[in-house]
Structure formats: structure tokens, C-alpha cells
Amino acid sequence: MFLHILLFFILIICQKVGAIDNGTWRRLIVIPFNAQIKGKGDIKNYADYLYENAGGAILEWILTGSKEVIEANFKLEKNQKVVKDAIKKIQKRIITG
């Protein structure tokens, strides 16, 4: 029996990745967040807002996603164009410095 561990890092800025080997990039999935929230749509303390207004829905979303990852034998697809583009952008930045 194998133990599978998935780590998710949710960051506002893109962290520096020091490795360019295939092993690192097989394990790294970059999901870009390109939204710009301006004006009245900018809610301070958004975590508190979500907890108060959508906590149940978020918990259901997390559980559904977890079930799908388990059913897929912990393999996440990297086929989305936006994900591939984000990974290439980071790899290019690493190579060019």
C-alpha cells in the first residue's frame, strides 16, 4: 500500500522554483489566478466573508474534489491550456533567470 500526499499552496505571488528537472515538473501543477477584483467587488477579509456566506458550499466543493482526486488514483490532469501556459511561463523564467 502506498501513501499519497497532495500539497496545495495557494499564493498571491508565484514562488521561485529552483529546479528545472522533469521530476520536479511532473509533481508541480501551476493554476494561475488572473482575475482582477476592483471597486466594490473588492471585499476585505475575504476568508471571513466566504465562511459566513458560503461555508457549506465550499465544504461540499472540497469534499467533491477530494473524492474525484481519490477516484482518479491521486493523478491530476495537466491538460488545461491555461495550466500548461502558466507552467511554461515559470519554466522560461527559471531558465532565463
Salient structural properties:
mainly alpha; flat; 3 helices; 49% helix; 97 residues; 0% strand
How would you portray this structure in words?
By secondary structure, this protein is mostly helical. 49% of the residues lie in helices and 0% in strands.
Q: How much is the average pLDDT?
A: 76
Helix percentage = 40-55%
Sheet of most strands:
none
C-alpha Rg (nearest Å): 17 Å
**Content-based structural category:** mainly alpha
Distance between the termini: 41 Å
State which percent range the strand residues make up.
Answer: under 5%
Q: Helix and strand string, N-terminal first?
A: HHH
Low-confidence stretches: none
Q: How many strand units?
A: 0
Shape: flat
Q: How large is the count of helical segments?
A: 3
Give the topology, please.
Elements: H1 22-27, H2 46-71, H3 81-96
